[in-house]
Write a structure and sequence with these properties.
five-stranded mixed β-sheet, alpha+beta, about 160 residues, about 35% strand, 5 helices, globular
Length: about 160
């Protein structure tokens, strides 16, 4: 898709607050623009399918799937030329006709596995397990290990 996607950002108010995009991006409209611009550059054929859209009052929620082929670096992951499918959910809050707040939940572990970044996943797992809150909670540590191990398996 070489089309101009900048009109997507017109749906968002200038006071936008974002949650769930990587922490190296600001949590405002400019951060959202930078994140999606990098995403669209890395996955020029990105296609989003939205389903299970629920609207109630000034809020909306939807599940989505993004498919695309990684052609450029994204979030430190070198181009892989791999086609991936990533699922997620987005929650929106509106004021008038503009989005003023959004939360994104993305299955980043699945994306990392599909892109073949096993070493990075393993390093993330080890770093998370070193957090004091995790070290002090055996049950939480086991759950986190299980989640990462599921995505690090070679099956």
């Amino acid at each position: 898709n070489k089309e101009d996607k900048s009109s997507y950002f017109d749906l968002h108010d200038d006071s936008l607050i974002t949650h769930g995009i990587p922490s190296n991006f600001p949590t405002n409209k400019e951060g959202l623009k930078k994140y999606y611009t990098e995403l669209w550059q890395a996955f020029p054929d990105a296609d989003f399918e939205f389903e299970h859209i629920i609207v109630e009052g000034n809020e909306a929620a939807c599940m989505f799937s993004m498919t695309g082929t990684q052609r450029a670096e994204f979030l430190g992951v070198l181009p892989s030329d791999k086609h991936i499918k990533v699922d997620g959910m987005i929650f929106f809050r509106f004021k008038d006709s503009k989005i003023i707040e959004r939360w994104e939940l993305i299955d980043i572990l699945s994306a990392a596995k599909q892109l073949g970044v096993r070493q990075q996943l393993s390093a993330i797992k080890n770093a998370v397990l070193e957090y004091g809150e995790v070290k002090g909670n055996k049950q939480l540590g086991e759950k986190i290990s299980g989640l990462f191990n599921k995505h690090l398996s070679t099956k």
